[in-house]
């Protein structure tokens, strides 16, 4: 356990955080604010500098970050990155102590999470898959929705950490269940953004005051967290990434593949997955997923 405890912050587990991107940086900072000792590793020096400025400790490698940790949290883009940081001589499983709790908060395939949990058992390391929803704003404000797969006792041990990061925290079932629920989340979000984007183009071409229209729509049954969070993106054509099209493309592949495996038909989801893919093919992969609006604009005759 962390030795740096005081009366304001009772003893908390020492945390290693691997992956300090758009989500990982503000999430790790929220843990520091909550009184945790956080040692971080990521590939970009400026992100490590940001962590130390916030009161964390920068490590020079994964091995260095995890060797004294009670809890290791990972937040990286996709399954290949999770496998790269978890396995091998320089990875988490070889260098973390037996008894460590590994919480993977990346959004990856359910099978990758199941395989990681199995491999970790041999090292005496416990694993939770705990992907999140809420985007960059939710990460900054510590209001993320966290969907967890794994054991009940491990979940209960991790709950204080989750409480510092999010608002809706639910154990969804065994290993991989968190990722399955996250895949469903990404399906709903993508379809919702697409519907909003189509409405925006329809409203603008009809000559309606867009800001007024979106306000009244968001107050009724058509209202949604997506519309609340992305309304200004649509109004201002501001597609600075909170969640990149590239990553949503990855997630639509996960949900499409997982649905095929269990025999679930996703007809609208399949269409939106192709629209996300086409947006990426047109060079917009680095933009926020609200940039699905650009796809609808192109289909409606705009030259972008």
TrEMBL record:
<dbReference type="InterPro" id="IPR006115">
    <property type="entry name" value="6PGDH_NADP-bd"/>
</dbReference>
<dbReference type="InterPro" id="IPR036291">
    <property type="entry name" value="NAD(P)-bd_dom_sf"/>
</dbReference>
<protein>
    <submittedName>
        <fullName>2-hydroxy-3-oxopropionate reductase</fullName>
        <ecNumber>1.1.1.60</ecNumber>
    </submittedName>
</protein>
<dbReference type="InterPro" id="IPR006398">
    <property type="entry name" value="Tartro_sem_red"/>
</dbReference>
<comment type="similarity">
    <text>Belongs to the HIBADH-related family.</text>
</comment>
<dbReference type="GO" id="GO:0008679">
    <property type="term" value="F:2-hydroxy-3-oxopropionate reductase activity"/>
</dbReference>
<keyword id="KW-0520">NAD</keyword>
<dbReference type="InterPro" id="IPR013328">
    <property type="entry name" value="6PGD_dom2"/>
</dbReference>
<feature type="domain" description="6-phosphogluconate dehydrogenase NADP-binding">
    <location>
        <begin position="15"/>
        <end position="173"/>
    </location>
</feature>
<dbReference type="Pfam" id="PF03446">
    <property type="entry name" value="NAD_binding_2"/>
</dbReference>
<dbReference type="InterPro" id="IPR008927">
    <property type="entry name" value="6-PGluconate_DH-like_C_sf"/>
</dbReference>
<feature type="domain" description="3-hydroxyisobutyrate dehydrogenase-like NAD-binding">
    <location>
        <begin position="176"/>
        <end position="294"/>
    </location>
</feature>
<dbReference type="Pfam" id="PF14833">
    <property type="entry name" value="NAD_binding_11"/>
</dbReference>
<dbReference type="InterPro" id="IPR029154">
    <property type="entry name" value="HIBADH-like_NADP-bd"/>
</dbReference>
<keyword id="KW-0560">Oxidoreductase</keyword>
<dbReference type="InterPro" id="IPR015815">
    <property type="entry name" value="HIBADH-related"/>
</dbReference>
